[in-house]
Amino acid sequence: MDTADIAQAERAGHPARSVAFVTLGCAKNEVDTAAMERRALAAGYRLEDDPALADAIVVNTCSFIQSATEESIEAVLDAAGLPSVAEGRARLIVAGCMPARYGDELAAELPEAAAFVPCSREDDIAAVLDGALGVERAGAAPEPGAGEARPAGAFGYVKISDGCDRWCSYCAIPLIRGRYRSFSYEQVRADVARLVEAGAGEVDLIAQDTGRWGADFDEPLDLAWLVDALAREFPDTWLRVLYLQPEGVTDELLAVMARHPNVCPYLDIPLQHVSERVLRAMNRRGSRAAFEALVGRVRAALPDVTLRTTLIAGFPGETDEEFDELLSFVEEGLFDYVGVFAYSREEGTAAFDLPGQVDDDERAERAQRLRDAADAASSPLIAARVGREAFVLVEGAEEDGQLYGRAQCQAPEVDGVTYLDAGEPGRIVRARITDTLLYEMEGEVL
Ligand code: SF4
């Protein structure tokens, strides 16, 4: 513990204890962890990277599908098995989606945990840590200020809302995260500003359903307004919108994207399926023809747009013909990137009891066939970028010194990277794409 930590702890009114956060799941959970870290820092706790050395370990869990729940349980049990926890020197706290979804059931299953913090109570993390570690404090812990944050990497995520009202029949998120709630412009702006000040060159706007932002305000606003306002306010920062349901792709949003060079011409539109019957059973709208028209409308407005989607294979009742329809849609190559998930049967969701559940092996096989088709369809689209110029945000260097970054057509963590022959981490460079290998690109800095 250095003197700055001690001084901060003393200002906060107690000796500095350390806390390690372990995060499972998606980018939304990473944002939630960052917010809890800021609250812990403001309350005088010190962040410890190694859980084995921390006084408290917070495992921020994911449980939107069964495999994620299993992974989260494993992480909790790993933490519970650390000598510091097993011998009672450190406290284990389970946060996030798993306590939100399983509530009291979990307390009986995991007696090793000192506390459970569902998503809706994460703002109370300082009080939970105080309680678990026996820290006495006069009054409530201080709210985090601008200084309480880890340094940002080349990019960061900002959540613009939480919850979801769509009730897709396969999805447990509305059960876990509750009703849709947009965050205010002031909050979103402050979160973006914090990342920019900490060095991020790109900020990705995320939510369960980004396209609904602002619709629940007393005086409704919309995503096009938000992106326009942020693009003007942060003209040197790339902005990217992820998780945009098809209904959220408005002409106004496309116009804003076309107007601002710092808004990545990139859309991540989860379609999940293209068969009308399957979509209705999923409690979703659309059809193959409607989605093809949507892609046409987007490409007309943004000729250089990069498109990503996600699809589900093996939904209950999916016939061979319906699967073939989905497969042939993927083979059309309308999307540069396609994420594929095998359907996961989730308790508490409407699809759990649907007839015609497809068996596990068949679901996995269908998912793999879609992935292979997506790779085959995407390869030529990515290879066609050779010879083009692109701006690339330099992110860092591999162990052997090889620099890499991401072009605007590559979203973080999912679309591969661009290897570069020059550049400085955190800077945006202009490069010519010289080669591609499936999803990875190589570029020569101009
Ligand atoms: S839009 Fe559908 S899949 Fe996405 S979080 Fe909401 S209910 Fe789940």
Bound molecules: iron/sulfur cluster
| Coarse morphology | globular
* Overall pLDDT metric: 93
**Overall CATH architecture of the largest domain:** Alpha-Beta Horseshoe
Classification by helices and strands: alpha/beta
Low-confidence stretches: 1-7
Cross-sheet strand order for the largest sheet:
2-1-3-4-5
Bin the helical content: 25-40%
CATH class of the largest domain reads Alpha Beta
Q: What name goes with the CATH superfamily of the largest domain?
A: tm_1862 like domain
Determine the CATH topology of the largest domain.
pyruvate-formate lyase- activating enzyme
Query: Per DSSP, what share of the residues sits in E-state strands of 2 or more residues?
Result: 15-25%
| Biggest sheet descriptor | 5 strands, parallel
Oligomer: single chain
* Radius of gyration computed on alpha carbons: 23 Å
| Number of helices, counting only DSSP H or I runs of 4 residues or more | 14
Report the span from N to C terminus: 45 Å
Q: What's the total count of β strands?
A: 18
The overall number of domains is: 3
Domain MTTase N-terminal: 17-134
EC number: 2.8.4.4
Domain Radical SAM core: 150-380
Binding site for [4Fe-4S] cluster 2: 164, 168, 171
